[in-house]
Every structure is written in structure tokens, then in C-alpha cells.
Amino acid sequence: MLPLLARKAITAFIALAVALLAAGCGDKPPPNHVNGPEDVSGKKIGAIEGSPSVVLAEELGIAAVFPSGSELMYHLVTGLLDCVIMENTVASELVSETSGVRILSEPLLKYDLRFAVAKENAELLEAVNSSLGTLRENGTLGSLRDMYFSGRKYTYVPPDDVPARPGSLSLAVPPDSPPYSYLDAGGEYKGLDVDVARAVCDRLGVELLIIGYEARDLVTSVWYGKADLALGWIPVEGEDKVAVSDPYADAVLVIIVRR
């Protein structure tokens, strides 16, 4: 039989081992070092493929791009990313489903969403702004935003007092940037941007044609005349190449970190 002192030492060691296993010792991710927008520079930043966050991640630090939010959260929690930048509504949903992460109180960026139109097409820009004004006044823009961002039920009904006109307008949007624009299971474009563009075209009495473009190529698609309109995030420098409409919605990019 082991001496009493030896038995006590073994018992204490087992108790310590159990406690360490229960606490996950050895598997803890590194501590969080991003506490505000000023700390993001130079860090390894996660972003969803096709979103405006990718451009910012590449500008600010080392970008790590993934096709889904769940993959981003896994890499953040395990310490393979320093932080993730993402649109606030999508981020809130992911964080609510993921333990060990949080959204910083100070956003990284706030910006308006606008149509991009060729600078030489002042007539189209005026028509888009006029349509947006009507859609804002009759509550369509607010209802569409609430549907995508607040989960409120809304059924858009096209106007019945606008005569159809010949022709169409082509729209460039990213195919993988929910909830703004994305392809559903049937291969059809959906999202806030798509619905806003369709409502504008309904006010103008023309058909909407949609073309998929990467987020970084939205401005050039209009600048080179490959699309009549583009929707989504238009960086400030892009306004040197295209004209921009009045805003149809706003967006907030937030920073997700480990707790």
C-alpha cells in the first residue's frame, strides 16, 4: 500500500488533471487583441467571399476569405483569425449562434447604398432618383429593408398605373452577397438590391436584366458600359468614374472578435 502522502499527491494530481480537462486547457485560443477599429490594421481579417468586407480586409491587413459565415466563426474561435468584418445584420445572427465571440460596440464603417450610373447618362440618373423618391415616400424602400433586416412580412406589389415602355435596363450585382443580392436554390437573383432595382424599373416601365459581377467590379461594369446600373457598395474613389444616385439604404460593417 502506498504511503498516505503519496496517495494524497496522486489524488491531487488526478483532481488537477480533471479540472484542466474540464477547462479545456491546451485548447484555448489566443487572447483577443482587437478592441476597436484602430486595432484592425495589420491583423488577419476574415470576410465572406463576394462581400464589400473583402476589399476592406485586403486594404487593412491580411485577408482570409471564406464562402460561409460558419467557416469564418470556426476560424475566429480557434484563433486562426484575429477578427472578422461583416455587415451588422448578418453578423448579429452569426454571433447569436456562436459561443465565445462578440461584436465590438464601435463599427468599422457606415456607408450608404446607391445606384451607380454612367456619368454621361444624366437622364437615367434623374429617372432613378425620381423613382427612388416615389418609393421612399410610399414606404416601399422602408418596407423592403424591414423585410430583409427585421424579418417583417411584406409583399411588394408592382404599380398598375405605369405604362410599359420598350427596352430594358441591365443591372450588375454580386451573386453571393446576401441579404443584398444572391442566387437562390433555383438560380434566381434575390435580395434587397434586386428588389429595389426591380421596383425602380417598375416605376420606369422597363424590364430588369440582371448580370452577376464580383463586388470589386461593380463600378467598372458601369464605367465600361457593360451594365446600365450597378447596386451595392460604391467606394468613394469609384465616384470619380461613375455617377451615384440618392441612397436607397444604409449599411454598417462591424468587427467580430473572440470574447
Describe the structure.
This protein has 259 residues and is an alpha/beta fold. It has two domains: 83 residues, Periplasmic binding protein-like II (D-Maltodextrin-Binding Protein, domain 2, 3-Layer(aba) Sandwich); 140 residues, D-Maltodextrin-Binding Protein, domain 2, CATH 3.40.190.10. It contains eight helices and 13 strands. Strands 1, 2, 3, 4, 5, 6, 10, 11, 12 and 13 form a ten-stranded mixed beta sheet that branches. Strands 7-8-9 form a three-stranded antiparallel beta sheet. A hairpin with a 3-residue loop joins strand 7 and strand 8. The chain is elongated and about 65 Å long. The N terminus is likely disordered.
